[in-house]
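Appendix B. Raw example, untouched.
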Amino acid sequence: MAKQGFQTKGFISLLTFGSFIIMSVTGIVLYTAPQGRIAYWVTWKFWSLEKNQWEAVHIVSCFFFIIVGVYHLINNWTLLKNYLAGKIAGGLKMKKELAISALIILVIILGPMYRIAPFTYILEFSDYLKKSWIISKEYEPPFGHAEEVSLRVLAKRVNIDLEKALPELKAKGIQADPGDSLLKIAKANKTSPMRIFQVMKKFEVAAPPAIAAAPTGAKGPVFTPDLVDEKFAGTGVGRKTLGEVIQQTGVDPAKVKERLAKNKVEMKEGDTFHDIADKRKVTPMEILKVVLVENYELK
């Protein structure tokens, strides 16, 4: 029996089917997954994958599906062109079907955009499923991206006696450096930021201390890493551009350029902190510290 050669068309069909399955499964998981602030706070996982991993797989599978689809289209372009030419030459006989299908596609696009029922039911059901993961108030972080700030700053923000909390964490088998973020401590101890906060919360005291303003030096305000965390954590830093932060803080643009260059960070005034942080595999707060803190170095 002659050895069968490599079947390119069959191979592409299998790749298309496989990427479609992955894209569908990840889409369903993300449809039901908790919101990011909850997922990162409780270290949410499904099939041993965290939410950001599911998002990464979904994006790559969608991108791969498009590539395979384009290749399939190019590979069968002659057949498709002849088919369309034949239909046009013979007269279009499915005018009604074409009009209805085009209308349905238009409705599918505009319905969710303008929050028209029944499309809103699909979106609202997703919101319901996402919120259903919050089974108690403890599943809510005290402020946005609380897992990204250091233990010391968290204690200041929510007014916890850190000197009493640290021995309690140690007694619970949690090794913690006050200068490390909750997320880093949680990963090192194989637990969640929420669990660490639960242990510390009993040492919360009554009157919260005021957050000090950044002292002003000869060339603008002087920031420390902790002060950056205190003032900016949970304020939507990721959505802000470099230009907005410079204007908001009054920091010297020349100093900013120098600090970014020292850390080999390429960032323009119109770039958001989220986009640059993604490229460097760090948090937006880390990039903000590079911008505001003298001699700060990315780890």
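End of appendix B.
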